[in-house]
Amino acid sequence: MKNPTEIVSGSYACISSLRAQTLSGERHLEESGGISAGLSWCVPVAAPFSSCLPPGDRGGHTLEVHRGRACASRACPVASRCICFLILIGRMKAYSPTTCLGARAERGVCICGTLPETAAGEAHCCSGAPPLIAVKRGGGGGSPGRQFCDWKVHKVNLTLKMTADNEIELKEAFQRAQKGHNNKAKLVASLKSRYNKLEDKTLFHEEFVHYLKYAMIVYKREPAVENVIDFVAKFAASFQPAPNTDDEQQQEEEEEEEEDEDDHPFLSFIFNFLLESHKANSHAVRFRACQLINKLLGSMAENAQIDDDLFDRIHQAMLVRVTDKFPNVRIQAALAMTRLQQPKDPDCPTINAYMLILENDSNAEVRRAVLSCVAMSPQTLPKVLKRTRDIKENVRKLAYQVLAEKVHIKALTIAQRVGLLQQGLHDTSESVREVVCSRLLPAWLLRLDGNVIELLHRLDVENCAETAMETLKAIFKTMPTEELLQNRGQLDNRKVIPEDSITCENVLYWRALCEFLKSKGDDGEEMLEQALPDAATYADYLCGFLKAVPVLTEEQRADFNQLEVVMTKEFISQQLIHLIGCLDTNEEGGRKRVLAVLQEMLALPQTPSSLVSLLTEKLLVLIPDDQRRIQTVAEIISDVREPITEASQPVDENMSRRQQVQLAEVKVRIMEAKQALEDSIAAQDFSRAAELKDSIAGLENHRNQVLQEIAKSNQAVDKEVHIEKNDPETLLRCLTMCAELLKQMNIKTRTGPTISALMSSLILPCIANAHPAVRNMAVVCLGTCTLHSKELAKTHLVLLLQIAQLDEVKIRISALRAIIDLLLLFGFQLLSETASTQTAQPTQSPDKQQADATTAEDKGDAPEDIAQSILVMFSEFLDSEVSDLRTETAQGLAKLMYMGRISSAKMLSRLVLLWYNPVTEDDVCLRHCLGVFFQLYACESRSHQEVVEESFLPTVRTLLNAPATSPLAEVDINNVVELLVELTRPSVLIKPSANTEVSIHDYLAVRMCGEMLKDPTAPEVRLYAKTLSNLELSREETTREDLTTLLQQLVQEVKDRVCLRALEKMLHQLVDSKEQAEVLSASALQPLDVNADEAATEDPSKSAKRPKRGQRKACTARGGRKPSRKAESSEESDGENVPESVPAVRPSRRAKTAALEKTKLDLNPLINQEANVS
User: Where is the composition biased (Low complexity) (predicted)?
Assistant: First the structure.
């Protein structure tokens, strides 16, 4: 762009005079404020210039120079980059520069104005063509449209210095920059033009910073301030040299020249000012300084270069600011360091700072900002992966987006890929799951050319089949219906995968596709028929594949290659068995064939043990009747355990010789009889002949019998016999089928003779088996079987208790699960029926009688002894060093307490302490289970809240008296107290109690007051005093009077000032609320006066005595209470946002617009005020 400092020049002889008059008029209007007031000015035409005008047009003319808006004509090919202006000479200023006459323009500058269309043919735009000068003949008034017919258009070769816009003052530039509709590019160009004219830049720098400071002291994200910041960034970045696009030789020459050149003075000045300001005490100044540095660095070209010293100074300053107290400052500092990081440098300070922020920053928006700008490297990738498990939904969502955009699937390990999919597809947030399905998976498929089978190769489906299945179903949901069957080209004409080309990946894809189509119901039935054969054909295919699975010997199992082949075959077999659920088994012939194949495979000894459970499950699904199920499985178990075998027997030689001699004798007698018959016939002794004939028939029959006996003795070498097999593999197969049968049976189906026979012949003998796997499966079968029969449960409960305490860990856990299931189903009444014939009274819950082991009064009662032993066993398991056993026990106790089978305050206290214990920090399953249990348990009923209230003081005492060496000494007592107070709030109940006069917090307040009265000087008094202010007390007068009396006593005895202020404040609140009961009852949010209670008259001495305290607990009296997790999150979000109030009710759009207009910040009054003062 040409430098707009040229003057008017033309072909007229008087053009120099025109230049002088134009500049004079410019100065005149500038002094009078005309330039800022309008876009035009008038200069009287002197005699030398008027003499150059056409004849008859020499007197009283006026030169008008008007600068219009950017050309808006669509016909103008240069409308986006032209400057519209019009120069008119005449007696009147009667037009508006709005209409573009550049319809036929080719390039350059458009001539705009309200000239008539007839003049459009003469007007033209060209960078090399002269502008137009319109001359008015004569004077007169009138509208512009009527008078323009008298104007002539003259061509003048001139260039004009547009001072009205190009050389605006700094003050005006900052005023106009606040308006969002102003074109900041024009403002930048105008201000830059003025800057380039100045010889001494110092005054400009000082004035620029002076006006910039007005914006930098505002922390609130006002639109006017943001516009000014953007303008400043664009203006400063405009001095950055444009990126070079010349050839290599030119680049080398410029690089040599750049070695001697420094950065632009204004850029250096603004950076120095911002770097000096980043240490200001005002957080607003620090925020704006970091924001400007971020925008300046972001506005530079990709190949821009800055001085090394400046780079280091910016780097050091931003490293300090990323640890700022205010989250918004940290966000801008982190964003500013985006272009300063060096991923290839393992010791890059920026990368290290980013990783530290991702790990430790408490503000979610700061973590999101770092995620958005951190460069991917082997160092940062694990940190980004960890953010996919962040506590905040937005952080997790952004982490998956960053991984999808910046990380190639090959850069991740198999475990990382599987972990990302497993966590993302099961995330609690719908938006996170949507990002995984719509961003991460398509990005991976795009990098694999859309090959889904190749994606499965990258996931190792043999070890993560379920995750791969969910991934495929997520992909299928985004596929059009017509594309679902495009990848079925792997199927042959039988609609099955050929055995020579079947792999783990394509068989899993086949299964996922069929299950997805089946889940679509009638819509996918037609497509399912194209992807799966009929039941009989598939049964034959499955049978052939299962029989082809090799069976390895012990020596072959030592060969890893052979073992891997067999494991792959077994995995494929599992997927093929799963496909049975997609078959259409409504047709009788196909269903019978599938049943026959399943029974044959279960009875076949060569079938792998890993397939037995799945085969049994699919078999039982096809058999709806329980009795038929039992009979079928029992027959298969009998065939497996007692197969029919052929026993060989030796041939008796003596018997064989005797049979041969007997046969010879018969043959001789037959020959003799036949000879005698012939003789009798010859002698015509027919009576004798008839007798001989009968004798011959008898001898022949006897001969045939002897022949049969000889043949039978020779063929009966093998004999079928039943031999019982007791090897561990066979027993495990039988127990697996039995366990699957008991699991699939209806819980109301009672055990019959067949189940009893299996119990006596298979399950109970295997309890004492030497093989651990056999014993474990036997315990599982025993526990499942006892659920179907209360008599069996009473008989074998003691055996399960013994196993839970004596056997291996895995078997103990199985027995513990069985015991908990029995107690959940039958309750503790089962114990009383087991020990004696007495049962609990129907009006009183047995768990209330036997819940707490320490409250058992009658030690000689057998049922209570058993209940006590069970609870003692549970308590010991909670202290176990085996995490699996501890977790299973905690889950079992949570189930029993939630279902009302146990109601024990001490047991609940144990669970609370276990949840907070640092020892269980790595036990994610335990903490998740208990965290959900506490909320559900307290919200379920008021009786549960009473248990929580009873556990309050025991829990606090345990923490207060924990020795310094105990892990419980690290637990924050304030946080525990807050949890228990929140759990006992009446407002959290799902179904509030009908008795509105009772409040759990009233009991809690009385207990704490009594505890404080026992020892007013104890350190925990401060904790109790602060907790009292968080309770929801009743509105009942008697309760308030009693609490007032207790508080008055405490005020007289407590000496600690902090406690005293808290107690006096609560006392005043009670008194005021009593006087203004009606006003407070109308309020919806009162922290102290919500519910009523009748139990405030309870004697505070009823609480147990406080145990002795350790000396280390003196520190518990300090400081305020630690905010809860929920409170932390809210305070955290407040810190990152602008400090403005958020309305409770969403206002209308009109109200929000009006409020926004009122709250808009305008820097003009401040600037004008400063100007007036100066």
Answer: 837-846
Cβ(370)–Cβ(334) below 8 Å: yes
Give, in order, the Cα–Cα distances in Å from 232 to each of 1, 478, 583, 1167: 21, 46, 70, 16
135 has a pLDDT exceeding 70? no
Q: Report yes or no: 388 and 358 within 8 Å, Cβ to Cβ.
A: no
Query: In which element (H, E) is residue 246 found?
Result: none
Chain segment 761-794, per-residue pLDDT in tens: 999 999 999 999 999 999 999 999 999 988 899 8
Rg for the chain, CA atoms, rounded: 48
Other residues' Cβ atoms within 10 Å of the Cβ of residue 471: 27
Any idea what DSSP says for residue 160? -
Tell me the pTM: 0.68
84 residue type, one letter: C
Residues 6+ apart with CB under 8 A from 60: 91, 139
Say which residues have a Cβ less than 8 Å from residue 921's Cβ, sequence separation at least 6: 927
CA distance 1110 to 1019: 10
- The sign of the dihedral angle between the CA atoms of 248, 249, 253, 259 is positive
CB burial readout 930-950, b (16+ within 10 A) else e: beebbeebbebebebbbbbbb
Burial class (CB in 10 A: 0-12, 13-18, 19+), 1165: exposed
Separation between Cα atoms, residue 419 and residue 422, nearest integer Å: 5
Q: At what angle do helices 883-898 and 809-826 cross, to 10 degrees?
A: 0
Strands, sheet with 132-136, edge to edge from the N-terminal-most edge strand = 40-44, 62-67, 85-90, 132-136, 151-155
pLDDT of residue 469 exceeding 60: yes
At position 327, the amino acid (one-letter code) is P
Who's near 1033: CB < 8 A, 6+ residues apart?
A: 999, 1001, 1002, 1005, 1039, 1040, 1043, 1070, 1088, 1089, 1090, 1091, 1093
φ/ψ of residue 64, rounded to 5: -115, 125
pLDDT in tens, 609-620: 899 999 999 999
63 beta partners: 43, 89
- 957: how many CB neighbours lie within 10 A of its CB? 18
Q: Is 1141 helix (H, G, I), strand (E, B) or coil?
A: coil
